[in-house]
Amino acid sequence: MGKKILILEDDSTIAAGLEYALEQEDFTVIVCRNVAESYAFFEHNDVDMALLDVSLPDGNGYDVCRFIKAKFDIPVLFLTVNDDEANVVMGLDLGADDYIAKPFRLRELISRIHSVFRRYRKDGVSKHIVLISDLIIHTSQAKVFKNKVEVILTALEYRLLLRLVNHEGQILSRNQLLEGLWDIAGDFVNDNTLSVYIKRLREKIETDPQNPSIIHTIRGLGYKAGE
Description:
single chain; alpha/beta; Rossmann fold; Arc Repressor Mutant, subunit A; 2 domains; 4-stranded antiparallel sheet
């Protein structure tokens, strides 16, 4: 049997589509329609990951995330139309491992699920810590440290950094990086603005932004994190 994923989603059409797509990837899927169902399930069961909607008929996904993180060491991803920066930050502050806005591409969601599972290693090292170069990323707290000093990133900069390090060593095209990113006004980031955000991120995390060692530009193709 594959890894077990719980979907908390009150929209039956979305839930059915997710269930089918994930089962095609050999995941075992459990669907809950509301907060009460999810709490009842977790009383006697566990899963390897939870995908949570935020707006639910009897509560919200933030409370469920808080409940899960207090009892289990599993990744949580939010799926929601509430994609403004405040909601993103709230989800990350609660320990969410990723946040994807509706509508979303199933292939992108599945890619993110596999990326998060790769971060959750079984070798005894903290599953909530990502190391790259001289950066330490605490995903459970949405905090980044460089040489033990916290680096203050905006929610968008943090999402951009996570997307790159989740695919460490892989070249991501500009279009792949643009998918799902938005600025503080809620507008999708365009191609020109992406260059500005990459520049700002480098200024905060690179020792020498002019000669980056963490985020590399692969001319004509995109960007790559790592060596």
